[in-house]
Amino acid sequence: MFFNIPIFLTWLRIVLIPLIVGVYYLPVTILGPQEKNEAAAAIFILAALTDWFDGFLARKLNQTSAFGAFLDPVADKLMMTAALLVLVHLMRLDLAIALLIVGREIAISALREWMAQIGASKSVAVNSLGKLKTACQMIAIPMLLYYAPIVLGRFAVKTHIMGKWLIYLATVLTIWSMLYYMKLAWSKVRDHRHIFIRLGP
Fold it and tell me: Does a structural domain hold residue 97?
């Protein structure tokens, strides 16, 4: 099934990605500096919500599909990478942190594809550690995009500080989860050595 409501939401998330970048190219006569931050943060939050809803609706409406399972993580990684590049460009995020996060996503994606080839994809399925890492990123990125205090009564939430600490936590979890997945994968590789021997030169 190539088109249903969950897949439409996934495509919508992909369409929203250029807008996160594009708002910063608008002239100040249309959007001021902080208005651009607010717009980018709002677009990212909307895109993140589609990520939750497409999975929920796919299960609720029984509209899961192989194409949706492929497209959803691709949309997630494109969204995350675009937002991180914007933050690096705005000098709100260290390049090293962005490279670690993006590099981990590429490495784990390749690892999952490899594990699928030997019939061990479940060994590197998303677990609670990966979900916690993703949650930290999803909260940190809009905070760093917004980059201004949010006043709640007598209190002011310093989003630039909270976002920075959360992205640091996400980076630690990124490395931790990558090592965890690689350890699980290595144990499966040892269990399937006969496959590599048979496929070898």
Answer: no
**pTM for this entry:** 0.84
- Asked if residues 42 and 87 have their Cβ atoms less than 8 Å apart, the reply is no
Judged on CB neighbours under 10 Å (0-12, 13-18, 19+), 153 is exposed
Cβ–Cβ under 8 Å, residues 17 and 47? yes
* Residue 106 belongs to some domain of the structure: no
Q: What is the pLDDT of residues 6-49, one digit of tens each?
A: 888 889 999 999 999 999 999 988 999 999 999 999 999 999 99
pLDDT in tens, 136-145: 999 999 999 9
How many domains in the chain? 2
Angle at 150 between CA 145 and CA 155, to 5 degrees: 145
Answer yes or no: do 73 and 7 share one domain: yes
DSSP, collapsed to helix, strand or coil, labels residue 147 as coil
- Cα 199 off chain centre by: 34
Any domain includes 38: yes
**Residue 124 corresponds to which tokens in the numbers above?**
């590197």
Q: Answer whether residue 9 is part of any domain.
A: yes
Cβ distance 143 to 162 under 8 Å? yes
Do 66 and 135 share a domain, yes or no?
no
- Which alpha helices (DSSP H) does 24-127 contain, by range? 33-60, 66-89, 95-117
Q: Under a CB-based contact definition with an 8 Å cutoff, are residues 181 and 108 in contact? A: yes
The domain containing residue 87 runs over which residues?
Answer: 1-91
Which alpha helices (H) appear in 95-192, and where do they start and end?
Answer: 95-117, 128-146, 159-191
